[in-house]
């Protein structure tokens, strides 16, 4: 019996690890579709719409990568993952990219053997409480019951925050955002804590969003970004520069409206020319076609367009650009040059 | 004069390994063994190779690193600065708690339902059939989630107990049923003998166990007297006294008092907090496994020949006495072995705890710890080892019990 257990565990581990290590780009091309890990449903970031088509801010990154590599933004297989299953799914090769509002941390990058390819949303952890509770600061939460998604950095930040401030709390561990929402609305917990963007997205899906407030404290830095496995730098480069292309496109004023015109012939701005492949050989350097970035941008528009469409101020989620504005406008978004 | 009856030996030929029935089974076993070992070594080398590819090593050092996360239900001291190893221990104790509670309740439910299903009362028998078929034919996970959902959606939040005209009130001012669990009074000591609550309780349990032993001796003494004189002395007041008085005196000496739950801030404070996750998991596991045990009990009783109960009735025993003294002791021999596997099932099924956020070994060691440290292989091996050891222990204990009730052949 003991043998069986070990054997089973080793089989799983063996199969899981077997898929990793090969060249991801070739795999994706041979498969004809990109396997992209997303959340199990977080409005605005990754959630299926009424027609079952995945939409959202993180989803747009997957679609841009698929467009750059395969030329078709719809050639993506979305794999919903929970906070607990996401890293195993990526490490085992079940998915090629994980775009699931995942915080870039030292230990995930180094110890878990992943490669964060950039930040697509600068976030921080916040708290949401019902207005009726009359709480105005997170430091008043002594003794509160807190709903939290397990397997996240927020779980660790929460423990640190309450310990440092010497106040007690009762954690209620929960697997997915949907369950947390149900528990929170049923009053089984006083507070729901996760990334502030996630809170805004969750609140937007409530029947009465006005009855809930997000407390002013942001207790952590949560740079959220897509990640790939260690050991395949080629693939990491492709995903990294696809994201950079989206950011750079906004900076240079390349939008889905004018991209056809800009890419038809080389223009005055050499940076735009190199980005869109009308000048230089950037695409060929990592094995893609010259117009890879054009396809990526055409999938959903540039970074700014994606932001406005999915989570921006005119959507129910209503997030302002804040830290996620271009560096030219006081934000942190800064793409290295395309040269 | 001698005659040679045996033909001369032909010596051993290789083809005999396949065609000679004396050797064939041996050949098959050796081949199978070699294949098995090849498979095993392939798996091991494949794992090592792939771990190397991923740049990972095989190291249990993470168990001594600070865990960084909090656990709500702790039977031992633990905080987010404790190690991953201690977090695993907290989870293991939580698993043991829900498994022990579950096995006890499932046995009670199962025996009652199994006996009642054989009742001559049509309604009772059908009700029990409804219970058994209803519970064992729906996946356990659904029952866990359903009971948990009923608790969170159907019971009032602690805030409903607040205010001058609260919409909810406590039972007897001592028990609060909320959507975060049930708060019951706790027993505390203000003149405890030991610092640690655990030792105090161990002392009380030891005294109580001694009382139970004394009661047994009294029963034995009464039986001896009955054998000798035909009269059974009245012992119930003696039994009751021996059972209760020593424990009660000890509790009074230690200054025991009830700590009633009361509203404090966001939640109830004081008392014992039975979390909704524990209750949902416990009830679902017990009801589900109880349905299987009911069938085992029913089968065990039906396995006793009708002649036994007819003989008991002929001797003038009432149906209740017949069941307790004649049928059940014999049925136990049939019931115990399958009961063991039900206990094992219940224990292993408790790993579904994560569905309701109960922090058992699967949720701590096999969940958060793995997730935060990235040690999937090590964590899963440890978890498998834990369930293996626990299962072996349970079946070992139950086998000892089985030996004590089985037919003694002389």
From TrEMBL, chain A:
Keywords: Signal, Transport. Gene3D superfamilies: Periplasmic binding protein-like II. It comes from the Bacteria. Residues 1-22 form the signal peptide. GO terms for biological process: amino acid transport. It holds the Pfam family SBP_bac_3. Residues 33-262 form the Solute-binding protein family 3/N-terminal domain. SUPFAM superfamilies: Periplasmic binding protein-like II. PANTHER family: AMINO ACID ABC TRANSPORTER PERMEASE (PTHR30085), AMINO-ACID ABC TRANSPORTER-BINDING PROTEIN YHDW-RELATED (PTHR30085:SF7). Belongs to the bacterial solute-binding protein 3 family. This is L-glutamine-binding protein/L-glutamate-binding protein/L-aspartate-binding protein/L-asparagine-binding protein. It comes from Salipiger thiooxidans.
From TrEMBL, chain B:
GO terms for cellular component: ATP-binding cassette (ABC) transporter complex. It comes from the Bacteria. The chain crosses the membrane at residues 23-44, 87-116, 128-151, 198-215, 236-258, 278-297, 380-401. Keywords: Amino-acid transport, Cell membrane, Membrane, Transmembrane, Transmembrane helix, Transport. GO terms for biological process: amino acid transport. InterPro entries: AA_ABC_transptr_permease_3TM, ArtM/GltK/GlnP/TcyL/YhdX-like, MetI-like, MetI-like_sf. The keyword Zinc does not apply. It is a multi-pass membrane protein. Belongs to the binding-protein-dependent transport system permease family. HisMQ subfamily. PANTHER family: AMINO-ACID ABC TRANSPORTER PERMEASE PROTEIN YHDX-RELATED, MEMBRANE COMPONENT OF AMINO ACID ABC TRANSPORTER. This is L-glutamine ABC transporter membrane protein/L-glutamate ABC transporter membrane protein/L-aspartate ABC transporter membrane protein/L-asparagine ABC transporter membrane protein. It comes from Salipiger thiooxidans.
């Amino acid at each position: 019996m003991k043998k069986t257990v070990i054997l089973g565990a080793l089989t799983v581990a063996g199969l899981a690890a077997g898929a990793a290590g090969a060249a991801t780009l070739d795999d994706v091309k041979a498969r004809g579709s990109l396997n992209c890990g997303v959340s199990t449903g977080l409005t605005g970031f990754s959630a299926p719409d009424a027609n079952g088509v995945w939409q959202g801010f993180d989803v747009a990154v997957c679609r841009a990568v698929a467009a750059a590599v395969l030329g078709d933004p719809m050639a993506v297989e979305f794999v919903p993952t929970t906070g607990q299953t996401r890293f195993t799914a990526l490490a085992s090769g079940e998915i090629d990219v994980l775009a699931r509002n995942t915080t870039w941390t030292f230990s995930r990058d180094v110890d878990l053997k992943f490669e964060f390819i950039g930040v697509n949303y600068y976030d921080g952890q916040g708290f949401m409480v019902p207005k009726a509770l009359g709480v105005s600061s997170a430091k008043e939460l002594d003794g509160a019951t807190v709903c939290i998604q397990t397997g996240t950095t927020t779980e660790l930040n929460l423990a640190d925050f309450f310990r440092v401030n010497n106040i007690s709390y009762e954690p209620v561990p929960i697997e997915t955002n949907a369950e947390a929402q149900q528990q929170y609305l049923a009053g089984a917990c006083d507070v729901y804590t996760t990334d502030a963007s996630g809170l805004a997205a969750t609140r937007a899906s409530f029947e009465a969003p006005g009855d809930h407030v997000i407390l002013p404290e942001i207790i952590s830095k949560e740079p959220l970004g897509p990640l790939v496995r260690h050991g395949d730098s080629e693939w990491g480069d492709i995903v990294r520069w696809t994201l950079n292309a989206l950011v750079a496109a906004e900076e240079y004023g390349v939008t889905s409206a004018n991209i056809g015109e800009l890419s038809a012939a080389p223009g005055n701005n050499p940076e735009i020319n190199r980005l869109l492949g009308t000048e230089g050989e950037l695409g060929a350097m990592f094995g893609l076609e010259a117009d890879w970035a054009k396809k990526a941008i055409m999938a959903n528009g540039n970074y700014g367009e994606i932001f406005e469409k999915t989570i921006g101020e005119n959507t129910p989620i209503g997030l302002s650009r804040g830290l996620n504005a271009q560096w030219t406008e006081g934000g942190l978004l800064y793409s290295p040059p395309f040269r | 004069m001698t005659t040679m009856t045996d033909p001369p030996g032909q010596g051993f030929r290789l083809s005999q390994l396949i065609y000679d029935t004396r050797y064939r089974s041996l050949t098959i076993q050796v081949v199978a063994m070699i294949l098995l070992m090849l498979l095993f070594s392939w798996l091991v080398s494949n794992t090592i190779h792939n771990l190397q590819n991923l740049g990972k090593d095989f190291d249990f050092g993470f168990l001594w690193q600070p865990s960084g996360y909090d656990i709500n239900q702790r039977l031992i001291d633990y905080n987010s600065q404790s190690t991953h190893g201690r977090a695993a221990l907290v989870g293991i104790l939580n698993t043991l708690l829900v498994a022990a509670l579950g096995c006890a309740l499932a046995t009670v439910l199962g025996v009652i339902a199994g006996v009642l299903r054989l009742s001559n009362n049509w309604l009772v028998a059908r009700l029990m059939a409804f219970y058994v078929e209803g519970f064992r034919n729906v996946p356990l996970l659904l029952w866990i989630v359903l009971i948990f959902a009923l608790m969170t959606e159907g019971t009032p939040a602690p805030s409903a107990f607040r205010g001058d005209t609260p919409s909810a009130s406590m039972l007897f001012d001592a028990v609060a049923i909320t959507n975060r669990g049930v708060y019951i009074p706790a027993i505390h000591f203000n003149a405890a003998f030991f610092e640690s609550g655990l030792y105090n309780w161990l002392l009380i349990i030891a005294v109580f166990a001694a009382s139970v032993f004394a009661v047994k001796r009294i029963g034995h003494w009464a039986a001896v007297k009955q054998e000798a004189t035909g009269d059974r002395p009245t012992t119930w007041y003696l039994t009751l006294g021996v059972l209760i008085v020593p424990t009660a005196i000890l509790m009074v000496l230690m200054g025991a008092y009830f700590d009633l739950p009361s509203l404090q801030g966001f939640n109830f404070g004081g008392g014992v907090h039975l979390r909704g996750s524990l209750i949902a998991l416990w009830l679902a596991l017990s009801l589900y496994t109880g349905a299987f045990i009911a069938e085992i009990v029913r089968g065990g009783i039906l396995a006793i020949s009708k002649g036994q109960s007819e003989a008991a009735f002929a001797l003038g025993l009432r149906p209740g006495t017949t069941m307790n003294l004649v049928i059940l002791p014999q049925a136990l021999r049939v019931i115990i072995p399958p009961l063991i596997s039900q206990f094992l099932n219940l224990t292993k099924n408790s790993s579904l705890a994560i569905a309701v956020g109960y922090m058992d070994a699967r949720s701590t060691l096999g969940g958060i710890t793995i997730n935060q440290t990235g040690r999937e292989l090590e964590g899963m091996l440890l978890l498998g080892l834990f369930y293996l050891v626990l299962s072996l222990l349970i079946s070992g204990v139950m086998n000892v019990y089985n030996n004590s009730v089985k037919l003694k052949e002389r």
